[in-house]
Amino acid sequence: MSVLSTPVLILAVAILVWPGRVAGKRRLRLLTGRQGPDTRAAPGVDADPLAAAAVLDLFAACLRAGLPTAAAAGAVVPSAPEPVATVLRRAADLLALGADPTTAWDQASAGVADEAVVALARMARRSARSGASLAVAITELAQQRRTEVEDAAAARAERAGVLISGPLGLCFLPAFLCLGIVPVVIGLAGHVLNGGLL
């Protein structure tokens, strides 16, 4: 081994080990210029519940700016969560190929069970048939989605408050009995027994 390779080897090991394996591998990829797998979303971490609403707002803004529906749908696909991204991509491709908007949105949303996607496709079909503004309907859908997420978060918070009261009660009930009830009962028993009432 040459004198130059020893410090390089020590530096490589230090980069990999300090302060952790994941951070070390990330630094090593940055140093070597290699791209690894996308690690933005850790496994087991829930996706942003408001991401669909943000994408719908962006889609509506693109439509208000004058973009055709196919171009607007294609523009928001990179930032859209699944399954919204898949449906928007399919619809954009079908519309760009010249498909009828009603058919394009119907085929794009086929087999998708997500409520936001089904509502988006339904509004797009209705807008294509009636000529009504799709941007206004999508903005209302985004607001409805935000309200649903807010209601769900409030329900989870209320449920957590109820669930925490059980262990809290189990902690305070013995203290209440020992410090509140037992001294009163002992005091009354002392007066009753010493007073000759029994």
Question: What can you tell me about this protein's structure?
Answer:
This protein has helices at about 5-15, 20-30, 50-65, 70-75, 85-95, 100-110, 115-130, 135-195. By secondary structure, the chain is an all-alpha fold. The chain has a domain at about 50-150. Residues about 35-45 have low confidence and may be disordered. This is Type II secretion system F family protein. Pfam families: T2SSF. It is a multi-pass membrane protein. It is found in: Cell membrane. InterPro entries: T2SS_GspF_dom (IPR018076).
Considering the chains and any ligands shown, give keywords for the structure:
T2SS_GspF_dom; transmembrane helix; single chain; transmembrane; mainly alpha; membrane; 198 residues
- The separation of the N and C termini measures 99 Å
Beta-strand level of the residues, as a percent range? under 5%
Provide the succession of SSEs. HHHHHHHH
What integer value in Å does the Rg equal?
31 Å
Stretches where pLDDT is under 50 for at least 5 consecutive residues are 37-45
Main β-sheet description: none
Count of DSSP strands: 0
Domain Type II secretion system protein GspF: 56-178
Transmembrane segments: 6-24, 168-193
Pfam families: T2SSF
Keywords: Cell membrane, Membrane, Transmembrane, Transmembrane helix
